[in-house]
Amino acid sequence: MTAGISPAYVFKLFPSKVELFVAALDRCFERVEGALATGAARIPGGDPEQVLHEVGGAYAELIVDKSLLMLQVHALSAADTPDIATAMRRGLQRITEFAQTRSDATGEQVQHFMAYGQLCHLITTLGLDATEGPWAATLTAGIRHYN
């Protein structure tokens, strides 16, 4: 994706690379929340597990294009930078609160949903669905994703 603006203008808006990266993370989580809202809208008034299932499916559809997923992976690897860690926590808070509020799920259900999502991140990032061996089959069994 290209923004169609010059690098000089970008650095006028974002004086440091960290500020630019944080802005990209904030936008990433806006897009994630938008996708989750689309999923939640598919099943208004459903039980919490149904809503979380649809929300998870919408996220799986979103990360077919790995750019948002890889941005999150890179951010995790740079989380020793305080501003990046803060942005990741802010995004995680946003998604966790959204999932709990829209699904009316318990804290434990949301915790399982988020943990499942992290496993999906690993599977998608590393291409484990195309990896042979019993260990990969164990990790990918029943995991929904789209190519």
Can you walk through the features of this model?
The protein has 147 residues and is an all-alpha fold. The chain has one domain (7-140). It is 73% helix and 0% strand. Helix 2 (17-41) packs across helix 3 (48-62), helix 2 (17-41) packs parallel to helix 5 (82-103) and helix 3 (48-62) packs parallel to helix 6 (107-126). The chain is globular, with a radius of gyration of 17 Å.
Mean pLDDT: 91
Please report which band the strand proportion falls in: under 5%, 5-15%, 15-25%, 25-35%, 35-45% or over 45%. under 5%
Number of helices: 7
Q: Rg, please?
A: 17 Å
Characterize the quaternary organization of these chains.
single chain
Helix content: over 70%
Helix and strand string, N-terminal first? Answer: HHHHHHH
What gross morphology would you assign? globular
Poorly predicted residue ranges:
none
Largest sheet: none
Total strands: 0
List the helices and strands and how they pair.
Layout: H1 7-13, H2 17-41, H3 48-62, H4 67-77, H5 82-103, H6 107-126, H7 134-140
Helix pairs in contact: 2-3, 2-4, 2-5, 3-6
Task: Explain briefly what this protein structure is.
The protein has seven helices and no strands.
Annotation keywords:
single chain; 147 residues; mainly alpha; 0% strand
